[in-house]
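General statements about sequence and structure are easier to judge against a single worked case. For one protein, we set the task of working out the structure tokens from the amino acid sequence alone. This step matters because it turns folding into a mapping between discrete strings. The amino acid sequence and the backbone structure tokens for this protein are reproduced below.
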Amino acid sequence: HLKAFIRGGYIRNCPVTPRDVDRALQIYGPDVATLKGKSVRPHPPRVRADADTTQIPRALRTKISPLTLYLDVLFLNGMPMLTSIDHRIKYRKTTPLASCAADPMYEALDVVLRTYNRQGITVTRIESDNEFQHFLKPLEDEWNILMNFAPPGEHVPAAERNNQTIADRVRTAVHYLPFKHVPRKLLRRIAMRETDK
């Protein structure tokens, strides 16, 4: 509006030119009172229900199901984490554990199995070290999953290889960080992120 007044000659002997008004707007920006009075809060973007989920085609689901799941526990800086990988699609998952007791292990394994079940993929066999036997064996009939445990002193090769891959990825991600000390919570999140790639 000020430029229109200046151009129209409504203000006599005005030393300000329309170009001066343009320069002032570039330097100082819009009027604060106008911005506060006329601006509205920006609306957050809409959350789409299917934004992060991709459905596996039915033909592919029937081809890859049922699966064998390999389990193990990986200790990152003293923190136990349940690691899993299947034999066909090689989907890795790392789930933090509060401890190596039975209840936290059941909760973590439930998270892993639900990930497959949501896609209509059935896990019919679990292979793990002998340390899992005392709390997984009683669930064999209830879950209708065949449990196979390695003999004492031996390990499941696929699970051990999976742990090595996860440890390498976490180590690489930590070395990229510009910090000398990494908090345990951040290290846990790094492990989960690097595994789900």
Notes: The mean pLDDT is 83.
